[in-house]
From TrEMBL, chain A:
A Gene Ontology cellular-component term: plasma membrane
CDD domains (UniProt xref): TM_PBP1_LivH_like
Keyword Cell membrane: yes
Membrane association type: Multi-pass membrane protein
Claim: Signal is one of the keywords in the record: no
Family to which this protein belongs: Belongs to the binding-protein-dependent transport system permease family. LivHM subfamily.
Descriptive protein name: Amino acid/amide ABC transporter membrane protein 1, HAAT family
UniProtKB/TrEMBL annotation, chain B:
Upper classification of the organism: Bacteria, Bacillati, Actinomycetota, Actinomycetes, Micromonosporales
Membrane topology: Multi-pass membrane protein
A Pfam family: BPD_transp_2
Name of the protein in its database record: Amino acid/amide ABC transporter membrane protein 2, HAAT family
InterPro entries: ABC_transp_permease (IPR001851), LivM-like (IPR043428)
Gene Ontology CC: plasma membrane
GO molecular-function terms, A-Z: branched-chain amino acid transmembrane transporter activity
UniProt keyword terms in alphabetical order: Cell membrane, Membrane, Transmembrane, Transmembrane helix
Localization per Swiss-Prot or TrEMBL: Cell membrane
Transmembrane parts of this sequence: 30-53, 65-82, 89-109, 115-136, 143-164, 184-209, 243-268, 280-305, 333-354
Amino acid sequence: MNTVVLLTLTGLGLAALYFLVASGLSLVFGLADVLNFAHGLFLGVGAYATWWASGNLPGAGPDGFGFVLAVVFGVLAGSFVAVLVELVLIRPLYSRTIEQVLVTVGLSLAGVALLQATWGADPRPFPRPDWSRDVTSVLGAQVPNAGLLLIVAAVVVLGALLAFLRWTRYGLIIRAGVENREMVTALGIDVRKAFTLVFAIGGAAAALAGALGGVYFGTVSPGQGGSLLIFAFIVVVIGGMGSVVGSAYAAVAVGLLQQFVNYYGTSGLGDLCVVGLLAVVLLLRPQGLAGKVAHA
Amino acid sequence: MTNSVVDAPPAQVPDELTPGRSRWHGLRPYLPLVALVVAAVLPYSTLNLPGIFEGPLNSPGTLQLLAICLVFGGLAAGYDLLFGRTGMLSFGHALYFAAGVYGTDILVTEAGLPLWQAAVLTVVGGTTLAALLGAVALRTVGIAFAMVTLAFAQVGAILVARDFGGLTGGEEGLPLDVSGLPPALVGVTNTVNLYWLALAYLAIVVLVVHRVSASPTGRVLAGLRDDERRIGVLGLDPYRFKLVAFTLAGGLASAGGVVYVLIVGGASPHITSSELTLSLLVMVVLGGPGTRWGPVLGGVLYMYLDHRLTAFGSSEAVNSLPAFLSRPLSQPLFVLGTVFILAVYFFPGGLASLRSRLTPVLTALRRPR
């Protein structure tokens, strides 16, 4: 029983990490049709900015309020890079899907190399608050606090995203744009502003994933984003492109499946099962769990 | 609008009347053959090209680098069959290459088979794998297809890295057991034979790709790239033709893996990563997708730069620059990624389009003022 609770909670922690990366990816793809390979870069930027801030930014530190400040700095940095990428590199290429994919591929190669050039290829110890190293007893299971932190953050982000999509004017435009971009443009709304906004949101969520993932893993390295990105892609495809709720369901399914199979089967088998799940979903329901509709 | 006077275009001079060009025009079809012969006799030259290669042309190090470049030229040409000629964006091509590398390595080292048997088995196995996985993946189109192939390739990477059954050597890789190999392919002094093997592989891939794309099947593939629905309306089954292209490209990639493992002398897990597929994509786009020589050029140049930029990055000229410049420049991937992004923006046709892009400039310069 203890093991099951522990596995469920760590699986949900993993799912939270996937969701933070996948939600932005899914919205960007749903609205702008951009398959963003550079999303892992936003994650890396968030992680390194948080790491840098806790050492160098006045007021920020590895503990207490200073840690919050460092994370906020990291999230802002990720969001800023995402907006910059959208404005400078993606915007001139709208409606040329293949070229956009190619540019983000080039960006992911060059960006990771740049991180590596600046801070080295080796993992760096991540400054984390002392309480995040402890465990909390939940139903008899000793659960690491960092995992719980991830779950809480993901739930907050999910709630905020849904509220934003449902109750604000820009949320309405994004939902309408995912459903039918041409119609939104025809109504005289500049849908490209929404593209920038979606990139900013996605970049912020990915950067948050980078910062909290740093706390979770204890280290930060340039290639971290790339390995998470592939699973985030799988989550997006299973959940349905453009659906935040679909991403959340798919992230939970993938995280739990991976954690349980990796524990009860051989290590690595869970990763294979996830890909198997992807193949099954694609064959039975090619549009994903939720289809290409941004449900709020 | 009606008042505007349109300049009459200058009368076209037929090519054979232009002096000085007719002599070379007859030779053009034979240029690939000439290039092949030049490449084949290259190892007999002791020419020293300081700055371009570290040793003379016939030194083993240079020949090995050239051989790797040639193999990747062939791989890029094979990948272009998918991307440039059929319009399929596959992110899992590394899987079939890795199947060739690890298949040969395991069959020779672990099972102790003679090389030719291992090679035949591996290529047949790699082709079958491509046919099976392609049959599933091709049920989706466009971006979803890219994702599915990426996921399949990821399975390969996981299988290799986790070392199920102790076959692949995990993170450490698997050195090739050379004791059972033909002696002509073993040892530093025989690098030249590996170079010729790589050249033969490149020639075969180029030949196959050209034959296929010139055949009726190739025209259907080009049609699929341009307008898939129309091919369907014409009564042809897009699925079957795409599967043929996918299987053929997978088989060519696994053959490339066989050659690569002989040149490098072992398998390492980084060749299974999605980064390898991404770099194949970069090679094809840099060279010019769907063109005759673009992907080959792109592949050779990319691998050359990837190897030589490391040396360039640690050279004096770069180290004397300020840190914020020298550090990024010492990362080959940073330079290549940046060049790639610029190429997507400013050279959509890649290196192969350079000629047609320069022609107007040259004619403008030549025109008497």
